[in-house]
Amino acid sequence: MIEDVTSDAEERMKKTVDYFRKELSTLRAGRASPGLVERIMVDYYGTPTPLQQLATISVPEPRLLVIQPWDKTQVGAVEKAIAKSDLGVHPQNDGHLIRLAIPQLTEERRNELVKFIRKKAEEERVALRNLRREANDFLKEMCKEGELPEDDRDRGLEDVQKLTDKYVGEIDKLVAAKEKELMEV
Fold this sequence. Notes:
Layout: H1 2-25, E1 41-44, E2 47-50, E3 55-61, E4 64-69, H2 75-84, E5 92-93, E6 98-101, H3 107-144, H4 150-183
Antiparallel strand pairs: 1-2, 3-4, 4-6, 5-6
Helix pairs in contact: 1-3, 1-4, 3-4
């Protein structure tokens, strides 16, 4: 019974951390990464489609992304979608593929990104604490209804707290790594 509650909480906490990891991968750290553009939505014959489903995205150099749409007629649509995105990078279209030169980040922009990352991390920590609260409430309700002895409830509450601490720690590690990456010149 307790195992069901803790495994469900752990699964949901893992998903929260994975989501945060994906969010961090889309942040530009002064070097090229396919994660920067994968989620950009392109108008593909009237249907918004993620760029990663329309093109090959490669990193031939540390500061260069090359995007090669599989359908050559969509090069213009891909270029337009990238230009409209909040990347702050101007696409170069040669008719067959698109090149994105990733510029160095300014100190001011680095600090803005660090603040943004910390804000997002706090949102994810709150999400983890909400998951902890839901699991704890469920355990307490089971105890109140007589389905669970108090000792088991207390052990379950302890287990849920340990899980929360573990995943909050993972978020902190991700933040520290991304901040270090951003502050590298």
